[in-house]
Amino acid sequence: MSAPRRLKNFLRCTAVSVLLLATTALHAAPRTEADERLLATARLWRDVKLYHLAVARGEVDWDAALVASLPAIRAATTPAQFHAAIDGLMASLQDPLTRGGPAQFAPPVELKPAQPVVEWLAGDIALLHVHDNAAIAKLRTQTDAITARAKGVILDLRPSAAGPASQSIDEFIARLIDKPLTLPTLRYLAHSGYAPVRGDTSGGYQTTLATDLAKQLLPAARGHAIPIVFLIDNRVSPPLSALALQRAGQAWIVATGALAPLPRPVEIDEKYTVRFSAGELVFEDGSTPAGADVEIKADPRSAPDSPAVVAALDVLRKAPAVRKTGHATALPIRQIERPYAEMRFPELAWRQLAVVKLWAVMDAFFPYKTLMDRSWNEALPLFFKRMETVTNAQEYALAIAEMTTWLQDSHVYAYSAELNRYFGTADAGIKLSRIEDKIVVTGIASPELPGRGELKVGDVLLAVDGEDAQRRLERLQTVIAGSTPWYRDVTSLHRLTGGPSETTAKLRVVAQDGTQHEVALERKRGWTWSEKTDPVFRVLDENVGYVDLTGLEQGQVGAMFEAVKNTRALILDMRGYPRGVFWLLARGLNVNGAPTAAKFARPLRRALSPNEERFQFDQPLAPAGSAPYRGQLVMLINEQAISQSEHTALFVEAAAPVTFIGSPTAGADGDITNTVLPGDIMVSFSGHEVRHADGRQLQRVGIQPHILAKPTIAGIRTGRDEVLERALEFVKNGR
Fold first, then answer.
1. Counting runs of H as helices and runs of E as strands, what totals does the chain give?
2. Which pLDDT tens digit goes with each residue over 510-543?
3. I need a labelling partner for 617 at 20 to 30 A (CA). Which of 103, 440, 553, 719 fits?
4. What is each CA distance from 326 to 105, 282, 290, in whole angstroms?
5. How far lies 266's CA from each of 59, 86, 355, 447, 456, in Å?
6. pLDDT reading at 202 higher than 60
C-alpha cells in the first residue's frame, strides 16, 4: 500500500476509534471536566512517548516536559487556558510539524465546469488537474500526448470536493523519468509488549524501529526526464515519487503549509486536536526528504493565474537548487526509563508524573485491562489528586503501590527502599497460611534456636506486635495487588511478621490446647529451612506414582518416567513453584496428541495504527515419544501455585485427561515485565495474556479443582497431608 493510502486509512481508522471511544465513555462513570483534561493529557503524553522519534532518540526529555507543563495544566479553568498549556507541552518537542487546534485544512480546489485534465500554458508547460480518481483515469488516456509535447509539468494534486485521489500516479510518473528512481520508505516505532526496564524476561517483548523495504520506480519504455512541480496542500501527503524526484533534482514541491508525512492525531477535546510526527521517511542512504521548496497560503483556485500555479511556474523558470536533506539516525539507542533515585520524595509535579507514567504504561501494555473490576481511567485522576496530600517518601510510595492494586494481577509488585522499610526488611522465620479462615503457623525455620520451640506448627496467630493479625493483614492488602483474594492472602501473609532486621516480633498465638500465650521471635534475613527428605519421585503403596514438581529438575524427567511407567496412577504435586519442566513433562504425557498447550496474546502498539492491536499465538505442545504414560493422572493444586505452576497445569491438561484435586490456584499467568517510576519505584506486571488451549480464561480464575480438598488445622497439627490423602482415596475408589 502506498504511503498516501496508508495515511488515508490511518486517519479514517482514527475517526472510527474516536467514535468507539466516545461510545464507551457513555457507559463509564461521570468524570469532571478536570478529569477529562487530565486523561486527554495522559493519552497525548503516552502516544508521544511511544511514537515520537525525537523522544525515542533521547533528544527530548519528555518526562521533564510534562513536569514543566503540569502547573499550567492543573491551573487551567477554561478550554483556552488548557489548550495553551498543551501547546506549551508540545513546544518542547521542537518539531515544526507538530500543531494543535481544530483541523485547519485547505479548502477544496474549485473546478471549472467540465474541467479538462490538461491545460497547456506558455512554453509547453502542462498544467495537470489531478484532483480526484476520475482525473487519474482521464490522465492515462492523454499520457502520450503530454510526454511528447511537455517541456515542463505542473501536477496539481490538491483535492477537490470529490477527492482526494487515492490511486497511485506512479504509472504516469514512470513516463517522466529516464532512470530508476528509489523511493523513500517509512520508518516508525512499534512495540510488541513492554520491554522490561530492568533485567530480562522470557516474554520476548521488544521495541522495534520498523523500516519498510524501499521500492524502485522504473522508467517506462518511452520515458524521458521532464521537470515537474507538484502542488499539494495539507489534506494530502506528497507522493513518494515526488520526494524522490525532488532529491534527484528533477522536481520541486509547492505546498500549502509544512509537510507532515506521518501525522498522528490525538483528540484533546471536541474542539482541539494535536497532530505530531509519528515517524519519518528515509532514503536508502539514511537521508530524509527536504520538505516543500515553496510554501504558500491556502487558495482554492487552480487556474493558470492562481497563486499556486504562478508559484509553480516561477519555480520552473528559476529551477532552484534542491534543498539540503537531513539525515536520520542509523541506529537509535533505546532510552532506558530513568529511576530518579535521587528523588527520595519527589516534588509534586514529579509525583504526578509518576501517576501519569504508571497509567500510561499499563493503559498501553497491560493485557488484562478488560478483567479489572474498576476502570483504569478512574484510577488516574484519583491518584493524581492523592499526590497533593502525601507528606513524605513513604506515603508517596504507598500511594503508588495502592494504585497498582487496581490492576488485580498477582504479578504486580511495587519495589522500592521505602516500601521495603514499610513491609520490613526481615521476618520472624515462620510460614503462615489461611486455614479454616484462621491464620495458622504451617512452618518454622531453625526451630532449634532459643525460644522458637515455644511455637508449634498448627498454632493460630492472633496478633503481631500488639496489632490484631487480621487487621494487620487487611492493612497490608491495601497496597498489595492480587489476581484472587486467596493469592493476595499468600503474599500478605508472607509479610505479616515483617519488620527491621534484628528486632523482636512479639506474637500472640492460640496453642493446640486452646490457651493463648506470647512468643518472642528474632527477625532476620536468610532463615534456614529444613530440606525435604523424601525422594522427588517415588512409587507409593498400591502402585501409585508420586512426583513433587517443586523439586523435579529437567534432567530428572526421563528417570522419573522410567520409575513410574508401570504404575496404575500418577500424582503430580504442583503445590508450589516448579523448575521449568513443563515442556518435557507434557511430552511424556501427551496421549491426547494435542498440538497446543496454551493461547497467548500481548498488546501490539504501532505508530501507524490508531487502534489497540494484539499479537496472538498458540504455544505448541511437543508430540509424545514412543511410550507416553497412560495411567490415571492426578494433579494436586492450591493457592501457592502461580504463573509457571499454572502453566504446567495447562500443559498437563492439554496432554492427557487429568483430575485436579485441592484448591484453586493463584490465577496469574503471563511472562513478567516491569517499569520504573520517580523515586526508584519498580513495578512489575504480567505482559502476556494466557488462556487455556480451548480459550477459557485463566487470569483471576486460576486452575479450578475437580475435587475440592483443603488442609484442616487438626490435620496440620498431626502432620497429615489431607490433600494427598484425598487424591489417594480418589485413585483407589474413583470418587
1. 20, 34
2. 999 999 999 999 999 989 888 888 999 999 999 9
3. 553
4. 27, 9, 7
5. 22, 12, 20, 62, 62
6. yes
